[in-house]
Amino acid sequence: MGSKDAAFLALKPSLSTVAPVTTNPMDETIPGNISIRILIPNLMIIICGLAGLTGNAIVFWLLLFHLHRNAFSIYILNLVIADFLFLLGHIIASTMQLLKVSYLNIIFLYCFYTIMMVLYNIGLTMLSAINTKHCLSVLYPIWYRSHCTKHTSTVICAAIWDLSLFICFLNRYFCGLLDTKYKNDNGCLASNFFITAYLMFLFVVLCLSTLALLARLFCGAGKMKFTRLFVTIMLTVLVFLLCGLPSAIHWFLLIWIKIDYGVFAYDVFLASLVLSAVNSCANPIIYFFVGSFRHRLKHQTLKMVLQNVLQDTPETAENMVEMSRGKAEP
């Protein structure tokens, strides 16, 4: 088992087969010896996760069966699937933690952790792809219209799923997924370094494309006008930087630092888990908020609200009236 995995298992009792040891004698407890430090974050994850599952399920249903899919909606659909499964994994882990249910064996533990890592990678990669695609559509509109089609988006999304699965399962193979006695320290170290570099690359791409869009919006001769799609993407990126990024920093950066994983570090780890759950359940809220903004809700259905989010043209008085009357049918 690699040093990274050992540290991870030591920090996350919800994924371990050993009950957590409370190192702070001042911890408050409730009947059943469940530490408040453990109870509150896991309850927050479960409550937030259930709300997020509902919101992502509604968005998935609308995108799949009720809306005409375009290049951007295909990416959003895949992001919704990744967020839904990621939240489901969070709920399962937190429920098992509160009920003190042990995992079947170390192999199951490794598989569960690997699946969560795959889903996180897919979510970040999809968000980077959405932001980059929108950046290209703004900066190079002619090239974008001739090269970026629905078929291209479908192929890229499939490649993202395949690449994330390959990278994460290759990492688990070298770090002892199939046989915990198998040791390939050099391979595990190289694989962990590659995943860290991959995530850092995605973060750089996300930041550069965001800065390019903001520069195009506020600077230059032909300034870009606000669209609902632009606002949606910017809010989604902002929420990820605030809530989703801390988990990546903890999992793939801080875990390498040789520190004493005490009570404070464990609290930071729990906070990063809660924030990652918030990040996955926030996107449906953003979609419905941006889609209904400046519209009269009593005249808007969920389908129309989500349809507004995918609008990539500046709003005028005319098209706002048309959308409010529901004329923008697929």
TrEMBL record:
This is G-protein coupled receptors family 1 profile domain-containing protein. Coiled coil: none annotated. GO terms for cellular component: plasma membrane. Keywords: Cell membrane, G-protein coupled receptor, Membrane, Receptor, Transducer, Transmembrane, Transmembrane helix. It comes from the Eukaryota. It is found in: Cell membrane. The keyword Transmembrane applies. Its main location: membrane. GO terms for molecular function: G protein-coupled receptor activity. The keyword S-adenosyl-L-methionine does not apply. SUPFAM superfamilies: Family A G protein-coupled receptor-like. It holds the Pfam family 7tm_1. It is a multi-pass membrane protein. Residues 55-287 form the G-protein coupled receptors family 1 profile domain. The chain crosses the membrane at residues 40-65, 72-93, 105-130, 151-174, 194-217, 229-257, 269-290. It comes from Mus spicilegus.
